[in-house]
From TrEMBL:
Coiled coil: none annotated. The keyword RNA-binding does not apply. It comes from Terricaulis silvestris. This is Putative ester cyclase. Residues 48-137 form the SnoaL-like domain. Residues 1-21 form the signal peptide. It comes from the Bacteria. The keyword Signal applies. Keywords: Signal.
Length: 155
């Protein structure tokens, strides 16, 4: 597969093209990976998380969420859901481990740690980008593993 780039969350802030802190549609050409990483960083990775502002900046108004426990699957419902997660687990950390981008799809492999010293969850987030705006999202969440027999980490 083409398009493998490994990013650490700390390195994702210096993004190019349309994914800067201004309008996601600025610049001559859109970098879909940069848009998604900038969104995720602002919403979840940075110590001061701003999911609602990130949704307003990077999500299309008609954004579609596929996560089954978000009522209506709308942009507003998804932003509210993330705000609730952050309020419930304020010490949580999201770390982008790797990204893959091909065409209008961007995949993030993320380590989610709900609290200091807690076992990590593996997240797979898939975003579809159109005209420098995120228009759709799917995810797969795998909880911590107890008694793993495979010596290789999920990360």
């Amino acid at each position: 597969m083409r398009g493998f780039v490994f990013l650490l969350a700390a390195a994702s802030v210096g993004l190019a093209s349309c994914a800067h802190r201004g309008s996601p549609t600025s610049g001559a050409q859109c970098d879909n990976r940069a848009v998604v990483v900038a969104f995720y960083t602002e919403a979840l990775v940075e110590p001061e998380r701003h999911p609602r502002a990130a949704f307003e900046r990077y999500m299309a108004p008609d954004f579609i969420e596929h996560k089954p426990d978000i009522p209506g699957g709308t942009r507003e419902a998804t932003a509210s859901f993330l705000e609730g997660v952050i309020a419930a687990v304020p010490q949580a950390r999201w770390e982008i481990v790797r990204t893959i981008a091909e065409g209008d799809l961007v995949f993030l492999h993320v380590r989610f740690t709900p609290a200091e010293g807690a076992p990590a969850y593996a997240l797979a987030d898939v975003f579809r980008v159109q005209d420098c705006r995120i228009v759709e999202h799917w995810d797969v969440v795998a909880g911590p593993v107890e008694g793993a027999v495979n010596p290789h980490s999920r990360f």
